[in-house]
Amino acid sequence: DEKLVLRRDFKIKEKSNVLIVEDVITTGKSALECSSIVKTFKANLVGYACIIDRSKDDNLIKSQIVSQIKLNIKTFSKDAIPEDLKKIRPIKPGSRRTI
């Protein structure tokens, strides 16, 4: 259903402390989905950590992220891509299957 789920019968113990750790946080959407799963198991979310924080200031978990490095990488909407970047063949990074 395009929802994040725990696999391989993984369970989170009730009242356990959980730190959500990702390689890169960009929008925070995956981290928020994980926090929802933590709440379902009635565990305590202690925070979010990542290696690279690419999030913007309007990210819902911005004040709670502990990261190794903060990178401000400019992004562009489809209709505002600079001409020099249009010449580069795009690839889709990440694990989400979005259109």
Task: Describe this structure in a few short sentences.
With 99 residues, the protein is an alpha/beta fold. It contains 2 helices and 3 strands, in the order βαββα. A 3-stranded parallel sheet has the order 1-2-3, covered by helices on one side.
Secondary-structure class: alpha/beta
Q: Estimate the mean pLDDT confidence.
A: 85
Strand order of the largest sheet: 1-2-3
Strand segment count: 3
Reading the helices and strands in chain order gives EHEEH
Per the principal axes of the C-alpha atoms, what is the gross shape?
Answer: elongated
- Parts with pLDDT < 50 across at least 5 consecutive residues: none
**Main beta sheet: strand number and arrangement?**
3 strands, parallel
Question: What do these coordinates show?
Answer:
Helices cover 16% and strands 25% of the residues. It has a three-stranded parallel β-sheet with strand order 1-2-3, covered by helices on one side. It has helices at 29-40, 83-86, and strands at residues 17-25, 44-53, 65-70. The chain contains two helices and three strands; from the N terminus they run E-H-E-E-H. By secondary structure, it is an alpha/beta fold. Strand 1 (17-25), helix 1 (29-40) and strand 2 (44-53) form a beta-alpha-beta unit.
